[in-house]
Amino acid sequence: MNIxxxxxxxxxxxxxxxxxxxxxxxxIEWLGKRLKVPEGAVGSIFAAxxxxxxxxxxxxxxxxxxxxxxxxxxxxxAILGAxxxxxxLVLPILAGxxxxxxxxxxxxxxxxxxxxxxxVDLQFFLVAYALAMACVFVSIPLIRYLVAGLLVALYGLxxxxxxxxEHDGEASLDPLFxxxxxxxxxxxxxxxxxxxxxxxxxxxxHLFVTAAKSLSVELNVSPLLLALLIxxxxxxxxxMSNSFLWLYQKKDTLAVGNVTGAMVFQGTFPVSxxxxxxxxxxGPMAMTTMGLALIAVGMSLVQLLWGGxxxxxxxxxxxxxxxxxxxxxxxx
Length: 332
Hints:
The protein is mainly alpha-helical. The chain has helices at 2-35, 39-65, 70-103, 115-134, 141-163, 187-219, 223-235, 237-248, 252-266, 269-277, 284-307, 312-315, 319-331. It has a single domain (2-331), classed as NCX, central ion-binding region (A middle domain of Talin 1, Up-down Bundle). The longest helix has 34 residues, at 2-35.
């Protein structure tokens, strides 16, 4: 009986997440249209920050308001887990889903987006994350504080760069759900719909985690496997849901920008929290996740610089880094 209940919770989490995703993406697109900002900025900044803020609160609360030694572990785990998941799993899944959609005849088999915007995202992330990784070998607190400030400034420069891009023109989009007959919906309705959608995304992710934990106990699944696969997937569920929906709608700039923009944010602001609030002494496993994230993003950037575009099957190979690391941890 309990297992049936947890399965129903899983299904409910999917419904809540998809509903929240539809509300949030629709509101974010209308916000971008009303503000007349480039489409790249809508996905990389508005959507990325909106979906990452709830999980970003975890390291802030854990590091500055938590108690005990575990606060540092929780905080650093949350900080380093997101870039690792986004680069080695979410982007490859996006590429795989593109292939699936193409096989089903729903769209073409190649990304249709401005790769210059993607290069900007990847380059900003590589610079920021490499600086953060270099600080592991620096024991002087002042230097870490200066780098933390530099990362925040770097994200400010990133925002300025994205907003300075050329406007893409009027993109076709569905009416705002909360004002279907309005040709120009009010900011208040856009904000209300976006907030409710974001709450739905977060609520669906939490329901997903609760069901997964309970089911793992019933089925006697390894807690390690749960920690490596279920919980990280749940934290990135909002980004994935938004991107998958946009990809299906052939809005690739928004779909990819939501992921790469989240990577830039996660590689700057939360990392600066870790640099200031901890001694930034990272163990081998934490260093490995940082290294694998840099390798995955580096491979994606090299593919762009070499061929000018992404080949979905080649982009999907980054998932081998996630799978290999997961199998290594599970076997150790």
